[in-house]
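JOB MANIFEST
job_type = single_chain_structure
chain_count = 1
residues = 352
[input]
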Amino acid sequence: MNPPQDRSGGAAALLARGRTLAAPALRSAVGRLAPPMDTVAAYHFGWIDADGRPTDADSGKAVRPALALLSAEAAGAPAETGVPGAVAVELVHNFSLLHDDLMDGDEQRRHRDTVWKVHGPAQAILVGDALFALAIEVVLEAGTTDAARATRRLATASRRLVDGQAQDIAFEHRERVTVAECLEMEGNKTGALLACAAAIGAVLGGADDATADALETYGHRLGLAFQAVDDLLGIWGDPAATGKPAWSDLRQRKKSLPVVAALAGSNPAAERLGALLMADAKKPAEEFEDFDEAEFAARAALVDEAGGRRWAAEEARRQHEAALTALEGLGLPADVHRRFAELADFVVVRTK
């Protein structure tokens, strides 16, 4: 298996293009929201601070908009053809972040307080709902048959995303989750929208279903690689880079991929980890929140010793290779193929 390359320069240019081309249309869509939802959304996107002052805060990696624009070029259309799709997938993604932060009790995202923490749970719910509705509007406004096809894919991906979040929450209350179940959940929660992003621009550009399906397969595999890396960062990521507390996923008792893979092992570390997590599950949340850093560090060390960290890293590389394989036979222009590969590499070698 060939390791992913660090082609961060090429990926950075693609991500910057995605932000530049999609930003005006994204701001215009958000501007349709009634007050105070427009202001709350602007805060979430990092355009203003909690007091309403303009800011240049981190607004996310923009992988999905970059994919939507690139997929338009895969269909032989200008990148701009994919802008409605780029905006739509970014709106759906942020709808899910607003709701996820509230459901998970996350107080920090991108080094700032989350929306529910600043503006309250009700606004987080309302603005999330509004962003989802805007996403559908933005794509349908083209008024073409291709726009209707693109909207159908977006709606299906959105439903699968919600399925994945429901599975993720359900897993928190189960003693054991299989690796297969975890991968299915992550394929829904993360893979579905990345799959849509990788195809929606092509559909808007007139690509046939076979081409769009192959691009969706690339995006789905990329999503699984993305989430595997996210799960690694959720335990061992540097808080200065991720914007989340150390051992973030362990604090939330998440059945993330490294944890599930570790528990599936047949070794003393896996047995000790299983016993600890089973005991944790019987404790009230308040007691768990009082654990000190050493206890979380000990659990992370057990996940590592049991093989969960290594397995998740290898899974990220497996899915990365599968994503690139999905592009074969599409006859993409060489520069478009190279940029899809650069984005795939970025997903696996990133640190936040």
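[summary]
The beta strands are 108-109, 112-113.
The domain at 8-349 is CATH 1.10.600.10 (Farnesyl Diphosphate Synthase).
exit_status = 0
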